[in-house]
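Posting this for the archive.
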Amino acid sequence: MLLITTTKCRDYGHPELTLALDFAMLEADARWFASVLEQMVQSGSRFQPGQSLQIGWSVVWFVALPNKTLGFEEPDMKSMPLVRQAGLTNSLRHLRLHKDTLESVLGSDALSLPSLQQSCLICTRLARSGSFFMDRRQPQGADSGWFIGCQADEHDHNDPTTLRTVSLYEAVVIICPRSLPYLAFPPGATIAVDEALSFFMDGEPLEVREGSFVDAQRRRR
């Protein structure tokens, strides 16, 4: 396990923060996040055990560690109801995945991350569907703006009896895990996921940039 501990928080009367990760490939992201935390403390933020913080779409909780620093717990991203586990591996890995996927077709300024605590609308056939699509409207309060539905022509998504509202966490982690990479797309985006992955913005097709993350994934297939 990789451990990264901040070094500047004590200068402002705050415990240092320890970031624990299972994958060394996330080291650059973890060091970036450690510097963000240091800047927050320098600007007056104070963190306490039990307090929560959003990282990307994920939510993490501060915990007291035996070495007098503050560590983190995050969702295990596989259990329902949500179960916490030590570290930041999932949260930072998902943030990297969301950024790399979005920036394969749009600029980084389009990044629009929801929270796993928000809700989304799904169709009742989604769990059985081999292909699906995602469409995002403007988020409002606890609503992420996401709709995730099957691509069956005979399934009427205008019929409210074929739809239900669930937490975004349940939709992505339990019902349709393949939707995870696309959560950071902004309102107006549509993603069709089947054998030929397609992206649209306000109804217009988006081209996958050559050499991008998504392009590399396509080539590997």
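The helical segments are 27-42, 89-102, 168-175, 213-220. The longest helix spans residues 27-42.
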